[in-house]
Amino acid sequence: MSDGYALADARGQDVLAALPYDRWIAASGEVMAEFHRDPAGFRVRFPGNADFVVAAETLAVRCEPVPGTARADCDTLWHNAIVPLLDNHRGAVSLHGAACLMGDKAVGFVGASRQGKTTLAAACALAGHPFLAEDAIRLEGNAAPYRVLPARPLLRLFADSAARLLPDAGGAPEGTDKLDLAASHRLPHHAHPAGLRAIYLLGENREGPPAFTRLGQQAALAELMRHAFILDIEDKPRLAAHFDRLARLAGTVPMIRLDYPRRFDCLSNVVERLAEDAASR
User: Fold this and answer.
1) What confidence tier does 171 reach under pLDDT thresholds 50, 70, 90?
2) Secondary element (H or E) of residue 31
3) I need a surface site. Which of 62, 101, 170, 254 has the fewest CB within 10 A?
4) Is there a contact between 112 and 27 (Cβ–Cβ < 8 Å)?
5) Helix, strand, coil percentages for the chain (3-state, nearest 5)
């Protein structure tokens, strides 16, 4: 066993007979994950990295890494993708995003890939607002009061962001464009659940000063659906229950679109304005 899942011997990713029933596709068009039916239940394939086979009844998980995939990479896929998929399948709420502590409450950041969620969480931590999560916001319970569960004390930053925010962090390992940064006195991590104050949707407008716009409940629900983890999109009863849980979240926790310039020299001002807005919610 490795960190909650069984680790199989490395093997190649054979071509599967059936097409995937779902895919995660990045804005660049790259396929990040494929979802297949498997005799055991589900097979979640991360091309070039690993397959995770999930038993339908018990939800026990076996990881089949591709030769050359490091154990740490399997652990990252487990924590940042498989665990939140299983959470939502079991009836919890997990969102693709980052979170940090502001005051005594948590705020979450959601948005498309490479919109700056983890970079913003790192900037907040460096300004004294400890991070809680860097790729998956796992909520305790599925109704108010919501609390954010702390993730690993680790931030995975793109190398360009790490170089600007933490110049002494070093470069990314060969074969990856991300750097694993352990929590430290300078980059604090909050290790306890924290009440969820607000969720910030990172907007597309990158011009002008930071702008905060609260979304209505229906718009917030639509965004939550986009950023939620779903293991089986063909399981209609589970989808209906999942929709209800997200509707409760959208009706309880404010969602605010945050538009701001994606420039490193502006980040300190963005964090300051963000802290002011969060305190007002």
Assistant:
1) low
2) strand 31-38
3) 170
4) yes
5) 30, 30, 40
